[in-house]
């Protein structure tokens, strides 16, 4: 069964079918389990190669410790410089710089030496969390918590027999500024400092909401412990005591050496 994103009131429907879900009449629990373990393994692989946003790890671990939840591709929030016709174009090949921590103007000086193929945009995106749940009740509970702490644009995306109830948690934090075109500069290098103040503040607002979500969910999760995940965490030694903001501070301290920023700029 597939649906469009559902409003809060429509989510009641899923609560009514929760018993059927848990009995496997809608969601195949064995296939769900297999996908959860694959997703869990992927978290640690992505962390090792530097693909995972490290300040997202405490929340991902917390959610996956519950047997009825597993997370998928998510982001803690980032600043991106793109070479694209429009800022909403979702083409990673157009990304020439990205950072998950606040940036300074000196990091973006290369923009004024860079000749764009199309247009240069600076974009801020707030955190986006994706997860599947075996329980409609639990999905609804997390959704309500997320909305309360600032993830106002969240909702159920669809329901899959193999994967579970798919939920997207979104803050709605988004800023985009055109910097230059092939013909002219829209924002001068002298004005970049004041622009970055706004962009960094927007990024940090998203990080603060991520922290609030983590702290709120920590009061209630895990409800039903995933014993296999717990054993795995004991082997890894990675049940984190640190919060997202504490890890963010470490990322900001280590800067480029910590892998929080990545420039893909090549002169052409």
What is the structure about, briefly put?
The chain has 8 helices and 9 strands. With 268 residues, it is α+β, with helices and mostly antiparallel strands.
SSE blueprint and pairings:
Layout: H1 12-16, H2 18-22, H3 29-49, H4 57-64, E1 69-71, E2 78-83, E3 95-99, E4 119-125, E5 128-133, H5 136-148, E6 155-160, E7 164-170, E8 174-181, H6 192-218, H7 227-236, H8 244-254, E9 261-263
Antiparallel strand pairs: 1-5, 2-3, 2-4, 3-9, 4-8, 5-7, 6-7
Record field, number of beta strands: 9
- Give the termini distance in whole angstroms: 48 Å
What is the number of domains?
1
Q: How is the main sheet built?
A: 5 strands, antiparallel
Tell me the fraction of residues in β-strands, as a range.
Answer: 15-25%
Count of runs of 4 or more consecutive helical residues: 8
Secondary structure category = alpha+beta
Strand order in the sheet with the most strands: 8-4-2-3-9
Order of helices and strands: HHHHEEEEEHEEEHHHE
Provide the CATH top-level class.
Alpha Beta
CATH architecture: 2-Layer Sandwich
What is the CATH homology-level superfamily? tRNA wybutosine-synthesizing-like
Shape verdict: elongated
Q: Over the alpha carbons, how many angstroms does the gyration radius reach? A: 20 Å
Mean pLDDT: 85
Q: Spans of 5+ residues with little confidence (pLDDT < 50)? A: 1-13, 19-25, 263-268
CATH topology value: SSo0622-like fold
Kindly state the percentage of residues in helix: 25-40%
């Amino acid at each position: 069964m597939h649906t469009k994103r559902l409003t809060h009131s429509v989510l009641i429907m899923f609560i009514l079918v929760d018993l059927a879900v848990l009995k496997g009449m809608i969601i195949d629990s064995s296939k769900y389990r297999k996908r959860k373990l694959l997703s869990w393994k992927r978290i640690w692989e992505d962390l090792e190669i530097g693909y995972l946003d490290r300040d997202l790890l405490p929340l991902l671990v917390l959610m996956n410790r519950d047997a009825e939840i597993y997370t998928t591709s998510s982001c803690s929030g980032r600043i991106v410089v793109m070479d694209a016709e429009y800022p909403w174009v979702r083409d990673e090949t157009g990304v020439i710089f990205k950072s998950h921590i606040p940036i300074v103007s000196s990091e973006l000086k290369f923009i004024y030496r860079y000749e764009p193929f199309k247009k240069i945009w600076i974009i801020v995106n707030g955190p986006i969390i994706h997860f599947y749940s075996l329980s409609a009740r639990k999905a609804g509970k997390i959704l309500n918590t997320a909305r309360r702490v600032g993830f106002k644009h969240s909702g159920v995306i669809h329901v899959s027999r193999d994967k579970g109830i798919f939920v997207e948690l979104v803050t709605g934090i988004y800023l985009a500024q055109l910097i230059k075109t092939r013909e002219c500069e829209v924002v001068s290098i002298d004005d970049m400092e004041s622009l970055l103040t706004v962009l960094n503040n927007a990024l940090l607002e998203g990080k603060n909401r991520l922290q609030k979500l983590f702290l709120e969910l920590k009061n209630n999760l895990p409800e039903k412990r995933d014993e296999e995940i717990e054993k795995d965490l004991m082997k890894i030694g990675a049940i984190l005591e640190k919060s997202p903001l504490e890890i963010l501070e470490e990322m900001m301290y280590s800067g480029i050496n910590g892998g929080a920023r990545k420039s893909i700029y090549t002169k052409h």
